[in-house]
Design goal:
Elements lengths: L5 E4 L5 H14 L16 H6 L4 E7 L2 E10 L4 E9 L8 H16 L3 E7 L3 H9 L3 E8 L2 E9 L6
Parallel strand pairs: 4-5
Antiparallel strand pairs: 1-2, 2-3, 3-4, 5-7, 6-7
Length: 160
Amino acid sequence: MTADLRLRRYEPSDGDRVLTLEREALEAVDARPDEEGWTDDLRAVEETYIDPGGEFLVGELDGAVVAMGGLKPRDGETAEVTRMRVDPDHHRRGFGEAVLVELEAAAARLGYGELVLETTARQRAAQGLYEKHGYERTDARERGRFEVLTYRKSLDDASP
C-alpha cells in the first residue's frame, strides 16, 4: 500500500507544508492544542531534530508531502518519536506506519536504545499503531483539555 510513498529527510523548502500538515492532521482528530509556541520546533526542524543527532522525515506522494515524523534526542540513550502526522485525505494507507518503522531504524542506527512518545487519548489510531509496534503505555495525565498518554519501547529488546 505504501509503494508510492517516498520517505526522505526534511528539507528547508518543506517548512510551510510541514506546518500546514501539523494543523490539518490534528484538527481532523480534534487534538490541536491551543498552546503558545506549539510549533516552535517545526519552525526550526534542523536545529531541533537533525543537528543534535535525531531525524525528521517527510513522506511524499506524487511530489506532495503527506506524512511526517521526527526523532528528537533526549539524551545519549533515549529519543522521542514526535510529530507523527498523516494528511487526513491519506489515512489508512500505511503511511504513518512507514514513517514509524523508518524512524525506529534511524534510532537504532544512531545508537538509541529507548524510544518514548506521547499521544492523546483521542488519537485511537495512533495508539493502535504504537501498540502494534511494541510500545507500552507508561503514563496517562491531563494536560489542558487532553488526556496525554506516554509510551516507551526498548530497542534493545526489539526483534530484528
